[in-house]
Amino acid sequence: LLFGGVALVPAVVHFLLAAVPPVRGALPLLALQRARFQRRTATAAVAGVVASLALSVALTVMVSSFRSGVTNWLDVILPADIYARSAANAAATDQAWLPASFATQAAAVPGVQRVQAMRVRSLALAPGQPGVTLIVQPLANPVMGLSMVAPPLPATAGETAVYVSEAMVSLYGAAPGTLIELPMGEQRVQARVLGVWRDYARQFGAITMDDALYRRITGDTRINDLAVWLQPGADATAVQAALRALLPDPAMLDFASSADLRKISLRIFDRSFAVTYYLQAVAIAIGLIGIAASLSAQVLARRKEFGLLAHLGLTRSQVVAVVAGEGAAWVAAGTLVGLALGLAISMVLVFVVNPQSFHWTMDIVLPAGRLAALCAAVMAAGTATAALSARSAAGRSAVLSVKEDW
User: Strand order in 160-165's β-sheet?
Assistant: First the structure.
């Protein structure tokens, strides 16, 4: 894609300049005519800008799409006001758990409107593979509690129905309608997959099952997590203290509000991708260095041309303006090609690389404001670089170089 985009620069320069109406001023005419007839020189001049801008645009679109997907996912999976957990991770859920009666007791605490209990445990589906997280919760309407990729299949009476994350489809082939075998203690249960949901927290797969079905199969009534909806005006701190008082060891429960969980998750995300902004700056800087090196070499080769223009009456600033106009035409073409290439590469990142590497999908998001600012900055910096490159060769030495031909 990058190689093809760089090769298209002369054609784009020709297309852009062909649309420019005839001009009457001497300086614009000189800049446009040379940009037209030397358009293949633009390939060497703006190749770095095309590549760096394309990669910067691709990273910007990918990160924006990922962040938007995570934000929407958090809105779906965090509907309650407070969340309580008895275990720090899924591996410790069989050592730190709560009795089934705790959910009923918690619902009776003053200030609590509703409680939803969840059982979280790890299942080993395949030897040598990391454990898959099993999430047991009420699933009267799975679309309300899960970020579904597509509408689920209808349930069939008598079947064990489960809903899986996207990683399960990639790693285990658990597409909707297929059967998967779940190790439930001493028995292995055949379950039918009814739907797929997005899960950006568990890269190795997760399965969701209705709590009543799970208890009927296993007889396990333990719970690990608790989602608590508060009554209007209730004091969250007082409710947390009352819930801890229901247990023999108050330290068994860790609490977090949905706002805190969302803030922590997005802060971790932003910290993880902060390096991409530095990579974009480095890429753009490398592209501008390429423009400076290429145009400086061209300007040195054109000293006699600049000297002749000076003998014809052009001042140093006017010669610099001509070179800046040529550079602006070439950089504009490079910016358009880089933007188009970046959007194409972002599609590869979002729809190919992410599902292959991390086993999850997301919707494409195009941050128009950031992309426009990025292109404008590259355009302005490229034009300024061209002008600065011309200043050193448009002085008195250029005038004297004309004597070499006399």
Answer: 179-184, 187-197, 160-165, 206-210, 132-137, 112-123, 225-230, 82-85, 254-257
Residues with Cβ within 8 Å of 311's Cβ and at least 6 positions away in sequence, in order, are 399, 402
In the predicted model, is pLDDT for residue 84 greater than 70?
yes
Confidence band of 113 (pLDDT split at 50, 70, 90)? very high
**Average pLDDT value for the chain:** 84
Reduced to 3 states (helix: H, G, I; strand: E, B; else coil), residue 1 is coil
**Calpha distance 184→294 (Å, rounded):** 67
Contact of 82 with 230, CB cutoff 8 Å: yes
Q: What is the pLDDT of residue 192?
A: 94
pLDDT at 2: 83
Question: How much is the pTM?
Answer: 0.81
The DSSP bridge pattern shows strands 160-165 and 187-197 to be parallel
User: 360-394: per-residue pLDDT in tens?
Assistant: 899 999 999 999 998 998 888 888 887 887 776 55
Supply 166's token pair: 């996207």
- What is the distance between the alpha carbons of residues 9 and 335, in angstroms, rounded to a whole number? 10
Give the side-chain half-sphere CA count within 13 A for 288: 18
The full DSSP string for 273-285 is: THHHHHHHHHHHH
Q: What is the Cα–Cα distance from 346 to 60, expressed in whole angstroms?
A: 8
Helix (H, G, I), strand (E, B) or coil at 172: helix
3-state secondary structure of 194: strand
The pair of structure tokens assigned to 308 is 């002749």
193 vs 157, higher pLDDT: 193
> Would you say residue 160 has pLDDT above 80?
yes
Alpha helices in 95-202 (DSSP H): 101-107, 142-145, 166-172
Which of left, alpha, beta for 99 (phi over 0: left; psi -120 to 50: alpha)?
beta
Instruction: State how far the Cα of 29 lies from the Cα of 322, in Å rounded to an integer.
Output: 9
Amino acid, single-letter form, for residue 272: S
